[in-house]
Amino acid sequence: MRPVRSAALLAVGLLIFGGALASRAVAETVPPTDIRVNLFGACFANPNVGWVVGDLGRVFRTDDGGKSWTRQEPSGRKPYFSVTCADETHVWVASTQGTIYASTDGGTTWKEQKTPVDRNFLQVRFANQNRGTAVGDFGQIVHTEDGGATWTQVHLPEDFKLPDSALDMGIAPDDALLYGLNYLDADHAWVCGEFGTILATDDGGKTWRQQQSGVESTLFGISFTTPQHGVAVGIDSTILMTEDGGATWNPVRSPFQELSYYDVGFSDGIGWIVGSRGTLLSSKDDGKTWTAFPTPIQFASEWFRGLSLSGTTGYIVGGAGLLYKTEGDQATLLGGPTADKRVVEHGG
């Protein structure tokens, strides 16, 4: 199948713009079943403390492992596509038009950070309190070494190439949309995006080099457990794995076909993939094999978009406030359209 431009943007309904300067958060505590907006990202500093973000300017923090959530409001009603946290107090959220907001007090107050671009940021990640990177529309990459006080634009490698199918569509190499970003440690990180794009860095994000994924499908999520072992996922039920740091990527069998997989993550040997049609996959062998995790059949019309794993505990978020808490290779529904009702499970 030919790659689809902006597939993730269409899939998760990233259509809401607007907002104002960042300000003091609105303290409103709600149970997870009352969160009904589309959720795009999650970050947990530890199994109990974390944030989820989504449409309509929604940012929620929990201090009790997802039992209750405090609403925080960095700025107006603009969507937040990604969240990253270095600890319980330092957190950043990414939004439209080159906007990033940061908090150094756990989300009580937020400050807008100026970036040198005006495109949408689809992913932001920090390796520690100082070093971070954000990626997004049309090949945009920005990097900081001071916690976001200053952001510098980073260009794609000079020898970066797109497949012929992209060139046939009139797409320039530096127009490739970048969706996924994963820091393994302070020095090693990977980015993935349209047309099978994978980029790697070993200097923390100051410079990047292209890796050959061997596919032309859009890749939405990427995760490494060691400098050598990583997994990338995308449309057309694409699952790729590398055992040599990305020098070569090989396809991994998917239990389903013609789905979109939006994110992947690992912790303590357990892996999770989240995707369209209410699909969750889990792995007990570092991503070599994947099996479907049963979810309510009603979720077949919904999607899962992001995840955050911390130790043996993790959190998965998606459309209409979908929220799962994972323990190892098991998951419990906390919030969403059917969280407070009797449900029937399905396998994807």
Would you give an account of this structure?
With 348 residues, the protein is an all-beta fold. The chain has a single domain, classed as YVTN repeat-like/Quinoprotein amine dehydrogenase (Methylamine Dehydrogenase, Chain H, 7 Propeller), CATH 2.130.10.10. 3% of the residues lie in helices and 40% in strands. The protein is built from 2 helices and 31 strands. The strands form 8 sheets. A 5-stranded antiparallel β-sheet has the order 1-5-4-3-2, with no helix packed on it. Strand 22 and strand 23 (270-275) form a beta hairpin. The two termini are 21 Å apart.
How would you summarize what this structure contains?
The protein is mainly beta. It has two helices and 31 strands. Strands 1-5-4-3-2 form a five-stranded antiparallel β-sheet, with no helix packed on it. Strands 6-7-8-9 form a four-stranded antiparallel β-sheet, with no helix packed on it.
Write the layout of secondary structure elements.
Blueprint: H1 7-11, E1 28-30, E2 39-44, E3 50-54, E4 59-62, E5 69-72, E6 82-85, E7 91-94, E8 100-103, E9 111-113, E10 121-126, E11 132-136, E12 141-144, E13 152-153, H2 164-168, E14 178-183, E15 189-193, E16 197-201, E17 209-212, E18 219-224, E19 230-234, E20 238-242, E21 250-251, E22 261-267, E23 270-275, E24 280-283, E25 291-293, E26 295-296, E27 304-310, E28 313-318, E29 323-327, E30 330-335, E31 345-346
Shape: globular
Q: Helicity, in percent?
A: under 10%
Secondary-structure arrangement, i.e. CATH architecture: 7 Propeller
**Mean of all residue-level pLDDT scores:** 91
- In CATH terms, the superfamily is YVTN repeat-like/Quinoprotein amine dehydrogenase
Q: Count the helices. How many?
A: 2
By CATH reckoning, the class would read Mainly Beta
Largest sheet: 5 strands, antiparallel
Please mark out the parts with pLDDT under 50 across 5 or more consecutive residues, or reply none: 6-25
Strand order within the widest sheet? Answer: 1-5-4-3-2
End-to-end C-alpha gap: 21 Å
Number of domains: 1
Tell me the radius of gyration: 18 Å
Q: Per CATH, what is the topology?
A: Methylamine Dehydrogenase, Chain H
Q: Which class do the helix and strand fractions yield? A: mainly beta
Total beta-strand segments:
31
Estimate what percentage of residues fall within beta strands. Answer: 35-45%
